Request: fold
Amino acid sequence: MTDTVSLVLQAVPYLFSGVGVTLGLVIVSLLIGLLMGVPMAVAQVYGPRSVWGIITVYVWIFRGLPNLVLLFLFYFGIYPLLGLDVPPFLVAVTVLGLRSGAYQSQIFRGAIQSIGEGQMTAARSLGMSTSQAITGVILPQAMRIALPGWSNEYPILLTDSAVCYAIGVMEILTRADQIVVLTAEPMTIYLVAAAIFILLNYGGMRIFARIEKKVNIPGFGERAL
Amino acid sequence: MEENDYILQVEDIHKAYGDREVLRGVSFTVRKGETKVFIGPSGTGKSTLLRCINQLTVPDRGRVFLHGEEVTNSGSRINYFRQRMGMVFQNFYLFDHLTAVRNVEIALLKVKRMDPKAAREKALYELRQVGMEDWADHYPAELSGGQAQRVSIARALAMDPDVILFDEPTSALDPELTREVLEVMKKLSNEGMTMLVVTHEMGFALSAASEVLFMERGLIVESGPPSEIPTSPVFERTRKFVGQFRDF
Reply:
């Protein structure tokens, strides 16, 4: 028993130093996905048909391929073929970000399409251009509508990030695995790793709940349009 | 040119949706300060006509001029013309994520690029005009239909338009709320605002219109000052129809 305790005590700091890497993966990917997802959603709803088609194909590919396949493709295939020596962390955020962008684009597209046509009509009737109406009226509403669904991207990316173990990113699971190899105590170590993931998930949920509360508008989104 | 006396000239507007001809050649002119009220059975193209004027719906044929400048086929200049032509909708279409005062000021900031302080002052002034200054910080979902519609009138007024298009502004309201909105509209009309109003409210037409235009199946079939309405044969037919909506 004391062996287990001291093992845990020794393992925890090493595992915790992976928290920064894991959170880095999650947050950078989330941001890449956001920066891609919103313009893609806007382009799909308001852009020409050809753009709609291109994005549909993109979404279809990146939602259709397993993370691990994409990681290997980029790490062993695409980046080396381009002659680039990209560190595992950057390969990982490329893949997680591109993939999250595909998912996020559809979350935002759904939100934009749920906004009544009258909002755009009223904005245009005041002399706003389409892009002024999108940035000033449509997106502020769509982002709020999308937030609950969008928050899901956090736990999804958090759990997906563990796959980056496969290309040696020094995140939590990779570190856990290193300790297990040394100590042959898989149950204890993986349980500690699991606890850290649960904690990170809980913290994220709290933050998103707070954001939702902060941007809430009385009556908005509560009634049928 | 004498044409330039007119704020608005509408020439031979046609609009069809597939086989259905909604507008079959509508022409009229509007002078400064006039309140023109369009009445007639539902589905005769009144609302479509208003939307063809500010190009929210693009007409198949015909032209619209504002102060002698062509609004139709004006490309991106349409955003300028729309600033000059306010619109009030049946369902208000207030921006749901903004408070009343921000609904009024958003176009001042975004379109007119007004200084934020001046825009806020202007917005509050317009809310005062429609009796909504006490509700400035409320969101649309917190307002009654009549209050929401008054805010939307303030939003249109804030742009200092040459003309305001009212598209059935009280059709979504019960009689009590209808009255508060009509009072605001009547006040604007009396103050010399140029207005085009599509409505079933005969009381408003009779008391505020400088001209009443009867529309039927995509055409203006008769027009005249409200004093002529009671003796008009066309009005007899219209009254039967409109009478189903409200007594007058």
